[in-house]
């Protein structure tokens, strides 16, 4: 049955699609973008099917080439995997619709390399999420990173330098991860995650395991842009083409967080990283500092994309905070925040891209009258911003509520204060935009309506609608996440 | 005692030394090409760690012989073949970025580029 092969089809279709993009581009350059949309749509449908299968029939394990793990490579799908897969594939699909016009203006005439890399990036990220083998994870991480470096460098004048700095940081991170994996392999002789989780308890307490954990945590923290290691992120997101910023902000850092959760809670057991070695409490404190520092730095920015990038640093802090507090409720909140941050930040970056498409404005003090000029786009921006602040009934409220509740449950009042304070700071930096957009001009002033093109507007509105829908029906994703969380943290 | 340990595990000493040199090159040098050289040294030192960890003393190449023989662990070699491909592609992306940066700014000195991009 073909449904048995869904995990590998997800990856094969992507690489097949990337391989055929240049051939399709040779026939007609205009066909590249619909082709990328088609491929990412297939991947999205497969991810939905996988989530459905996992919820209906329990965890899936796919053996590549029929080789039994731990000798062969295994693709293991459980609820966490499937949930993140749906988010990543969904964002890739919707951004690919949006990207046709946006990238057509910002990167004209480069459709072939652009969409080849786009599909490689989306497939690489899906590969990181689906694989059950640590070395395979490293390979997919590098595949997606290399595509991301190249895509960022397609942006404006300063993008090459931003991409170069990202590449240096990314290579340090990937090399650390590779070295950490090497230590795990030398100690246990296996690379399979499930097998590692059985063999590792035998060597708990050995200093070499501590080194391996340190290397992998630092490596993945660079990839997720956890606060002191976030330096690559603002430049990369500011100078990349708008659609690529939207894609990376929505998915790439989340994939890193997924890998961190997977390594900490599945490969190494939760009790070890929480009690024996305080990795988690260290991450929580860094995340708390990052939440505040990201928000404060965002207030200081006047470029809209740079502001959103710093706000990403702060929002990533929330997710890590939830994971680091490591109790049922906070963990649920953290994983739910992966969904909510993907929805709202992708939407916000798309709006900033739409403004750049229509007017070329990047400075937030020049946005005056934009509320009349692009009413639907700015409406979607307000929805995203309200969700970032955490106002009900948006999804941002649901996840922040769970995070605060989890912090209370853990008895750590400090983090509740951090969450509330950061919500306030978030309100401050979004208020500056609201003020300019809606109250910057006199009522009498005539401004011609000049809305973004439909292929850009529809994905933006879908994201805004999803922010609301996921907020109103937040109990559905929460129930799904809880099944996984309770299995890991009893 | 210490000397014995160093001689017994000299491969690890070498890889750590190379790694530190590479890391310094990536962080400390201001010239972009030197940064890339540092990056390559950094990556290859890790490959060296993998390959040396695979060694079995007195082992032969892992090929099928008529008589059973001790052979080295082939898996790390295979892993590192993949990682070498990754490293080469990273270097290629890096060098092409450097070409673009040079065309844009006319220099490869990071400080000067930072000044120019203000």
Oligomer: heterodimer
β-sheet strand percentage of chain B = under 5%
* SSE sequence of chain A, one letter per element: HHEEHHHHHHHHHHHHHHHHHH
Q: What is the name of the CATH class of chain B?
A: Mainly Alpha
Beta-sheet strand percentage of chain A? under 5%
What is the C-alpha radius of gyration of chain A, as a whole number of Å? 21 Å
Q: Can you give the mean pLDDT of chain B?
A: 87
Name the average pLDDT of chain A.
Answer: 88
For the largest sheet of chain A, list the strands in their spatial order: 1-2
Beta strands of chain B, count? 0
Structural classification of chain B = mainly alpha
Helix content of chain A: over 70%
SS element count, helices of chain B = 5
Radius of gyration of chain B: 20 Å
Looking at the structure, what is the overall shape of chain A? globular
Q: Can you walk me through this structure?
A:
The complex is a heterodimer of chains A (about 500) and B (about 120). With about 500 residues, chain A is mostly helical. Chain A has a domain of about 190 residues. Chain A contains 20 helices and two strands. The longest helix of chain A is centred in the C-terminal third of the chain and has 31 residues. Chain A is globular and about 75 Å long. By secondary structure, chain B is mainly alpha-helical. Chain B starts with a helix and ends with a helix. The longest helix of chain B has about 30 residues. Chains A and B meet through α5 and α6 of A and α3 and α4 of B.
Please name the defining characteristics of this protein.
A: 490 residues, mainly alpha, two-stranded antiparallel ribbon, B: 118 residues, Helix Hairpins
Q: What's the short story on this structure?
A:
Chain A is mainly alpha-helical. Chain A is built from 20 helices and two strands. Chain B is elongated, with a radius of gyration of 20 Å.
What topology emerges from the helices and strands here?
The complex is a heterodimer of chains A (490) and B (118).
Chain A: H1 6-27, H2 32-57, E1 60-63, E2 74-77, H3 79-106, H4 111-130, H5 134-152, H6 159-188, H7 193-199, H8 207-224, H9 232-239, H10 242-267, H11 270-276, H12 279-299, H13 304-325, H14 328-358, H15 370-373, H16 375-389, H17 395-409, H18 413-439, H19 454-472, H20 475-488
Antiparallel strand pairs in A: 1-2
Helix pairs in contact in A: 1-2, 1-4, 2-3, 2-4, 3-4, 3-10, 3-14, 3-19, 4-5, 4-10, 5-6, 5-10, 6-8, 6-9, 8-10, 9-10, 9-13, 10-13, 10-14, 12-13, 12-18, 13-14, 13-17, 13-18, 14-16, 14-17, 14-19, 14-20, 16-18, 16-19, 17-18, 17-19
Chain B: H1 2-8, H2 10-28, H3 32-53, H4 74-105, H5 110-116
Helix pairs in contact in B: 2-3, 3-4
């Amino acid at each position: 049955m073909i449904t048995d092969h869904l995990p590998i089809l997800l990856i094969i279709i992507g690489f097949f699609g990337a391989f055929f993009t240049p051939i399709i581009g040779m026939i007609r350059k205009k066909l590249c973008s619909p082709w990328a949309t088609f491929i990412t749509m297939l991947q999205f449908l497969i991810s939905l099917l996988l989530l459905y299968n996992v919820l209906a029939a329990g965890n899936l394990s796919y053996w590549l080439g029929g080789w039994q793990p731990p000798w062969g490579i295994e693709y293991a799908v459980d609820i966490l995997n499937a949930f993140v897969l749906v988010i990543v594939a969904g964002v890739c699909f919707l951004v690919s619709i949006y990207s046709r016009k946006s990238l057509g203006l910002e990167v004209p005439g480069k459709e072939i390399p652009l969409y080849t890399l786009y599909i490689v990036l989306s497939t690489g990220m899906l590969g990181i999420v689906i694989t059950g083998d640590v070395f395979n994870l490293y390979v997919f991480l590098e595949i997606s990173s290399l595509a991301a470096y190249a895509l960022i460098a397609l942006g404006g004048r300063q993008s090459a330098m931003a991409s170069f700095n990202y590449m240096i940081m990314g290579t340090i991170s990937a090399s650390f991860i590779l070295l950490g994996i090497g230590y795990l392999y030398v100690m246990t002789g296996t690379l399979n995650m499930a097998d590692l989780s059985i063999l590792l308890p035998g060597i708990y307490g050995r200093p070499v395991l501590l080194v391996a954990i340190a290397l992998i945590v630092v490596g993945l923290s660079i990839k997720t842009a956890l606060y002191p290691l976030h330096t690559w992120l603002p430049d990369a997101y500011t100078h990349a083409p708008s659609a690529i910023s939207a894609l990376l902000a929505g998915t790439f850092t989340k994939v890193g967080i997924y890998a961190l959760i997977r390594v900490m809670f599945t490969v190494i057991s939760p009790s070890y990283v929480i009690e024996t070695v305080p990795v988690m409490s260290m991450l929580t404190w860094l995340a708390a500092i990052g939440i505040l520092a990201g928000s404060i730095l965002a207030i200081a920015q006047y470029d809209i994309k740079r502001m959103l990038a710093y706000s990403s640093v702060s929002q990533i802090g929330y997710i890590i905070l939830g994971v680091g507090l490591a109790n049922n409720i906070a963990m649920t909140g953290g994983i739910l925040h992966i969904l909510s941050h993907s929805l709202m930040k992708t939407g916000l970056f798309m709006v900033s891209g739409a403004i750049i498409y229509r007017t070329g404005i990047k400075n937030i003090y020049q946005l005056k009258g934009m509320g009349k000029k692009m009413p639907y786009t700015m409406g979607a921006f307000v929805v995203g911003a309200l969700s970032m602040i955490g106002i009900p009934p948006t999804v941002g409220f649901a996840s922040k509520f769970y995070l605060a509740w989890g912090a209370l449950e853990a008895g750590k009042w400090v983090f509740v204060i951090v969450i509330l304070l950061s919500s306030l700071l978030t309100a401050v930096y979004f208020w500056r935009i609201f003020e300019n957009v809606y109250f910057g001009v006199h009522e009498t002033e005539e401004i011609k309506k000049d809305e973004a093109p439909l292929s850009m507007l529809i994905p933006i509105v879908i994201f805004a609608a999803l922010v609301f829908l996921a907020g109103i029906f937040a109990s559905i994703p929460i129930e799904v996440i809880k099944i996984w969380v309770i299995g890991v943290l009893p | 005692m210490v000397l014995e340990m160093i001689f017994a595990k000299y491969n690890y000493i070498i890889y750590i030394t190379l790694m530190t040199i590479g890391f310094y090159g990536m962080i400390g040098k201001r010239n972009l090409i030197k940064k890339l050289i540092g990056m390559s040294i950094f990556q290859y030192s890790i490959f060296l760690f993998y390959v040396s960890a695979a060694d079995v003393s007195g082992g032969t190449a892992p090929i099928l012989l008529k008589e059973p023989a001790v052979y080295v662990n082939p898996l790390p070699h295979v892993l590192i073949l993949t990682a070498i491909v990754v490293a080469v592609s990273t270097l290629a992306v890096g060098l092409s970025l450097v070409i673009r940066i040079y065309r844009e700014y006319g220099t490869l000195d990071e400080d000067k580029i930072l000044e120019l991009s203000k």
